[in-house]
Design brief:
alpha/beta, six-stranded mixed sheet
Length: 225
């Protein structure tokens, strides 16, 4: 793990995190949401993306995927429902995201683009374990926030849960296809089975330890078109 470098970009408009994991001239990108920022990291570190991993299907975590595919060759890996739902403007939320941003920021967002992405190259239905460099990567379906949500574990030591776990807010399950029941019965038990001191790199906000995570669902209706 000492040789693995992790850099984060934060999309100013949506506050979404993207993580770029780098080693030996190659990179794994988790949730590519801002192509320009990602490209800058790749250029500065002189690395080439080999894998793109998606924690879930929502537009604020995939908005840079199409541009990356235009400039690089790599494999995209996602859960099967995530792969299916990035191909639909309702399921990926790009249809309503401009309105949602007004709701959470109070700022008007004009012409937030509606977009779709092509299917992932590799999909899984429950979990997938594979190797990259000398690292093990495990992706585990954790529905609740969305049907396609998954957790990503690197070497069983660090966790990327997307929007399914935060250290500073509750988890939202009221978007299209979300389920509080799935979160309570599937996602939450999985996260609570992991070591409490595991570092967590969330889809929004700062890194925290798993024991400091907020395992609660936000109940007020936000937006579910």
């Amino acid at each position: 793990m000492e040789s693995l470098k992790i850099e984060r970009t934060v999309d100013r408009q949506t506050t979404g995190n993207c993580y770029v994991l780098m080693e030996d001239g190659a990179a794994v990108i988790i949730d590519p949401n801002n192509y320009e920022q990602i490209e800058e990291i790749l250029r500065q570190n002189q690395v080439t993306p080999e894998l793109v991993l998606l924690t879930h299907e929502h537009g604020d975590h995939i908005s840079g995927l199409n541009a990356l595919r235009e400039h690089y060759r790599f494999q995209t890996i996602a859960s099967l429902p995530c792969s299916q739902r990035i191909q639909d403007i309702r399921s990926n939320l790009s249809r309503i995201f401009g309105v949602y941003l007004i709701f959470i920021t109070g700022e008007r967002v004009r012409d937030y683009p509606k977009f779709v992405c092509e299917a992932a190259d590799v999909t899984f239905e429950d979990r997938l374990l594979f190797a990259w460099k000398d690292h093990s990567i495990e992706m585990v379906l954790t529905p609740g926030h969305s049907p396609g949500s998954c957790a990503i574990l690197i070497d069983g030591e660090i966790l990327f849960p997307g929007d399914s776990l935060f250290g500073d807010r509750q988890v939202v399950t009221r978007f299209d296809g979300g389920s509080s029941e799935d979160y309570e019965t599937k996602a939450k038990p999985f996260y609570q089975s992991l070591p409490p001191d595991m570092p967590v790199y969330p889809g929004h906000g700062e890194k925290f330890l798993l024991k400091d995570g907020i395992f609660e669902v936000a109940h007020p209706q936000l937006l579910s078109d």
